[in-house]
Design goal:
By secondary structure, the protein is mainly beta. It contains three helices and twelve strands.
Length: about 170
Amino acid sequence: MTTDAPRLVRVGRVAGAFGVRGEVRITAYTQEPLALLDYQTLRRADGSPALTLMSGREAKGTVIARAREIAAKEQADALRGLDLYVAREALPATDEDEFYAADLIGLDAVTPEGAPLGKVRQVQDFGAGDLIEVQPADGGSWFVAFTRSTVPEVDLAAGRLVIVRPAEVSEKD
């Protein structure tokens, strides 16, 4: 089944209230935290509107914002933990050889010879760089570092990326 719903990309999470006057603290997942203000309406995972940001400032890596929907500290605290999204189309274009993780999820993973390895399930960063999780058609998933040597080609238009299989991942995986 196809849907016309926009693809959503998580850009932040409500961390709670800031002060007692209805400001909300947001942990931004954007490269520039204040970029959240450019999107104005941030959405919930289901696509419904969550917060309309009217103003904000950066403080210790978070965004302290005023949102139309929040007038009191208690309202901001009630939203703690809420993930915030924008439509993928609202994000700025990437440079060559730069990709949003959301664009990679679901791509076919193939060997340099074109043999199927599975699909990209997730892109994770546990602190040492991006890892691509590949889910084969059968069997357990496995990770590969997202580097030029292990992922020499990403072709978004063709819906695939080429992976040089690490020696520690057997062909049975």
